[in-house]
Amino acid sequence: MKEPNLPASLSEAAITSLPDSAYYIPNFITQAEEEVILEKVLINSAPRPTWRHLSHRRLQAYPSTLTPQNTLLAAPLPTWLSDPVITRLLAIPVSNTPEKSHIFSDSPHQAPNHVLVNEYAPGQGIFPHEDGSAYHPVVATVSLGSHIVLDIYAKKPDESGEREEKHRWRILQEPRSLLITTGALYRDHLHGIAETDVDEDLNEKGVVNWDLVGGREDFEDGTKKRETRVSLTFRDVLKVKKLGKGLGFLGK
């Protein structure tokens, strides 16, 4: 079992062929840690949020879903989401400068306060989309159970906000890996997952982070059949409302 071999800074994990900025770290969590989190999500994490079933996937939100006004009701995240993921994430500086600031240093709460858990069965995906203005423009995603390929689309060079028809780049996300997107890549691009059972062109020409992939031997023939994947998406919600005493039961 591969133990985490974390970079000294995120600059060592940068996907340099993408617009500013994306970082990829394979084996960010161990297999044992992955098994614990999957057990909490899928089996015995009661009390837990109920699954919300969408047409092509199902999801949970921790500590809760946002209100219609894109506000998060203040509540702590479960410890099994905070540790090891958030603890480890905040321990990695963006660069080797004296400041040693981490990727969430400039966010309002200086740490993720919200996690979306998405489950994708083989053949399921998600339409190209933006994450929107409810969040600080940093997304940290941990993949569990299976690999996935994330397609990145540029917006058309006009004021429509529409995307180009074909993706420009593809990012391979291995099980237990961490992908961070921020900056212009967050603001000016869309991302999605194709609905397919098998991913192809998994090589140095087909994915932009091939040099950072930790288990290239798993993709030596350039194809890989998908299995069920669970993603953990960590973000900092900008607007947070503290619960009054009369609503305290909502945070329990």
In helices, the fraction of residues equals 10-25%
Total beta-strand segments: 15
Q: Helix and strand succession? A: EHEEEHEEEEEEHEEEEE
Strand order of the largest sheet: 1-10-7-14-5-3-2
Strand percent estimate: 25-35%
- Indicate the overall shape: globular
Structural class designation: alpha+beta
Q: Mean of the pLDDT scores?
A: 90
Evaluate the radius of gyration. Answer: 18 Å
From the structure provided, what is the oligomeric state, counting identical versus distinct chains? Answer: single chain
Low-confidence stretches: 246-252
Major sheet attributes:
7 strands, antiparallel
The number of helical segments is 3
Distance between the termini: 37 Å
Q: Would you write up a description of this structure?
A:
With 252 residues, this protein is an alpha+beta fold. The chain has three helices and 15 strands. The chain has helices at 31-44, 79-90, 183-187; strands at residues 22-25, 52-53, 58-62, 71-73, 114-120, 126-129, 138-144, 148-154, 169-173, 178-182, 189-193, 198-199, 224-225, 229-235, 239-241. The strands form four sheets. It has a seven-stranded antiparallel beta sheet. It has a four-stranded antiparallel beta sheet with strand order 6-11-8-9. A hairpin with a 4-residue loop joins strand 2 (52-53) and strand 3. The chain is globular, with a radius of gyration of 18 Å. The termini are far apart. Mean pLDDT is 90; it is low at 246-252.
